[in-house]
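Changelog-adjacent note: as of this version, every example in the card shows the full chain rather than a window. The one below runs 466 residues end to end.
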Amino acid sequence: MNAFDLVVIGSGPGGYVAAIRAAQLGLKTALIEKYNTLGGTCLNVGCIPSKSLLDSSHHYEDAIKHFDTHGIEIPGEIKVNLEKMIDRKRKVVEQTTQGINFLMEKNKIQVFEGLGRFLDATHVEVLGKEKQTLEAKNIIIATGSKPATLPFIQVDKERIITSTEALELKEIPKHLIVIGGGVIGLELGQVYRRLGADVSVIEYADRIAPVMDSAVSKELQKVLKKQGVKFYTSHGVNAVDRKKDQVIVTATDKKGNEVQFKGDYCLVSVGRKPFTEGLQLEAAGVQLNERGQIVVNEQLQTTVPNIYAIGDVVRGAMLAHKAEEEGVMVAEELAGQHPHIDYNLIPNVIYTWPEVASVGKTEEELKAANVAYKKGQFPMRALGRARASMDTDGFVKILAAAETDEVLGVHMVGARAADLIAEAVTAMEFRASAEDIARMSHSHPTYAEAVKEAALAATEDRALHM
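Full-length structure tokens:
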């Protein structure tokens, strides 16, 4: 029998990072993955492939809309080769997953291909080409999530699809109906809008990206609407039917009227749900809550002390980097260290263009908690760098405590916001004030100057360029 200090089930960002950190700390580690490539949803059918298509479609949009303004003239018609675009995406995924293979070998982590399931609290059976049993002092469940749907929707993976199928379409939709105005729906909706599809986003809440700061949601919707995306907020979907190559979505608007949307594809992007099927959790005594999440304590221990769970299968935001932090934390705990995670400081990003990024408290949350705050906001259009690159949409907003000036939340829409948010996370990790950020030198000309200017605006309403 193979015996290990740690067995990790699932090779997504949480699982493989946990395995690497455990191996670095001297633990004999095994990783179980049921698919023939490592990396989980994020690397195979999530973060990485979607960003590949976002970048490719962005290049196309620039070519047809902006090159002429920049003085770049291309003779002849510019066309989309969707097959080639998808193929490039596959190569990016392949290179990335192969990188994980290299890291497993480098760190001497033994990888088992097959479905991992519990026999008891210390034994995991791997159902692969051959059946094997692994003995483990400790086990981490990192099996991630899968796309959720609505009870009355039959996803046929042809015309009524999830994000997985949207990454492999054989044609550009004429009219893509997107159910759900969250991260996945907005990103993939923008991909196909750029490529020429009509895109309609149906959202049950009264705004898109409803978990983010309302000012961010409003700005993003305004910009995407300008790009041609149609939005139908406060609409509850009642039925999704397919008639040959047509999909009909029936919904109720905020006035109670029934409305129909007709398209050739419907992307169901109403969130994701924990994936625990086939694990035989009951054999180990691991419990789930009413939402299907694995119950864990602050140390991410399940109801069985030597079994841990991380990432999308437990409470909290379903984010790859959140799973990574949790994986590192558990590995370090097992090695006798004392790590911690501040969940308030895990940033959230939407990779549309302009990008959206947020960390800390929203204005709505501060109001609900009766926290006295002040804010500073600075528009991207006031930056020389933004005008030079023709990326003038968006803003940076900083929320700070009224008395202490400590930064409580930072929210931004704009070019490279996904990278800029790291400055805010760093500042908040060290309990910086808005004045601290305002007094730091920021390179000119950069998008990061908007962070400094927003901090100046929050400090004494003294932004320099507005």
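Structural remarks: The mean pLDDT is 97.
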